[in-house]
Amino acid sequence: MASKIRKNWKRIRPSSLPHAMELCLDHAREKLNRSVDSVADLMGVTNKWNLYKWVQGGSLPTRLIPPFEAACGINFISIWLATSANKLLIDIPTGKRISQTTLAELQQNFSQAFMHLSNFYEQQTDLEDTLFALQLTMGDIGWHHANVSTYAQPELDFSEE
């Protein structure tokens, strides 16, 4: 029996707006067990066929991006919009401690980015792969920078213990 390879959603980046929308729907299906119809319902779209049309044409109305991403559980459209404008996004950190595993992942991302960069200058690595590796590493560093700066004043935790 062949095992299904799971996607690492943190490492996937969309290449276009339609691709971003498809990735969002893939995430909704794989991680949240939501169909396109249920995503449309959660967005408040009365005619599910409109969502199919918007995904096919890559033309989701701007006001529906936040509810679409919320229903899908991931923000690939926002990521694509920012990166297509040459902007770098980082998740807002909470100023909490991190694990050694997180630091090891940071080191691994550094190593991969350095390898891609070195290979790129030797004409052995694809431009897009190199840019992706660098973007991922810069985002990680930005997150850690903000996390360290907010560590002294962490967010209020309103959860009950």
UniProtKB/TrEMBL annotation:
It comes from the Bacteria. This is Uncharacterized protein.
